[in-house]
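WARN no homologs supplied; continuing
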Amino acid sequence: GVTGVQTCALPICPDTDGRRRTLAEQELVNSLGWLVAMRWIAGLGVLLASFVSAHVFRLPVPESALYGVGLFILAYNAGLWWWMGQLGRTVPDSTEVYALFARVQIGLDWLAMTLLTALSGGIESPAIIFFLFHISIAALLLPHAHLFLYVAVAPALLTLMALVEYFGLVPHVALFGPSRHDQFVYVGSVLFFFTVACYMLAYFCMAISVRLRRREKEIGGVYESVRDTTASLDLPTVLNRLVESATRVLGCKAAAIRLLDRERGQVAFVATYGLSETYLEKVPQDFRRARLDQATMAGEPLFVNDAAEDPRIWNLDRVREEGIQSMLSVPLAGKNGPLGVMRAYGGEGHKFSEEDAAFLELVAAHGAVAIENAQAYRMLEELDREKSRFVRIATHELRSPISVMESLLTALVGGYV
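OK structure emitted
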């Protein structure tokens, strides 16, 4: 077995304000400047399109009002440009402030889009499609909490505009042929399909964003495990970092590594993260009783979806008290057979996936390398000690005859003199 490894249960610590930004957060900050730059073009584009529509195509557009919308876009974009400069100087590391800044930008853009749509045909305006651009930006860049409620603002604004036109509260701008803004079926159909398109686009963009952010976390976790494996020969430190990294990436309750001691027939915790001392003390070390460990070391990832009812678990009551609902175990595979298991523990409502298993297997592979490296290093240390001991013994045995000869020669020479 592996000796010299102490069991360690670390509390789960939240991220600090000084943590490194994720790629998604960096992309959010970088994209804000891009949005400001694109808005200068959009504001000038509205001014140019208004002029061309009125004087080239001779469309019955409210030219002055459209110029006002274009100037409004340029004006608030100047304010956003100034605000962004202030943020860069005062709170450059606050992701929450930048997320708020992005929401303010999108909200102002939606207000401008509502005015532009109302002045270019209302419910019949071809400009309606531009709402979808900001929905995709919000789904890809902003945090996903309450995203669908945020997306609801766009259909709500369009619905409000359609209603005030439908009931004649504001004049309708008819650009193309007979107007249909007062036809209930047409207005209802446009609003229905627009709303469906908004939510479908938000869902697809959010799904892509979630998968990309998960891949980022997995890559970061693998990088950390490789770095920890190669940066230190202190095995307890390396293994504790691995289980902490696995817990954070998988978003689960806890993680642990149990190593097999073949000579004593035991399997014991050597590194844990998020498990209580009471739980650790009551888990059996006898390998014959560790049915989950036996099944995992057979070579395949082991999923436990309802830990509180699985008969292979040693003490179901203790598992319930610990708040563990699911488990995912993968083997620590060494060159000469299994070294132990790495296990992730999910809390209430947590389910592990095949992707989770693939990531945990990668981390477990690095853990196995660290364990075998530590074993090899210990073996080299023992060989070095044996070598030093052999040299000392050999040197002593070699010097003993030489010392005897020197003493005899000294005695003979002294007697002759």
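Residues 354-416 form the longest helix (63 residues).
OK
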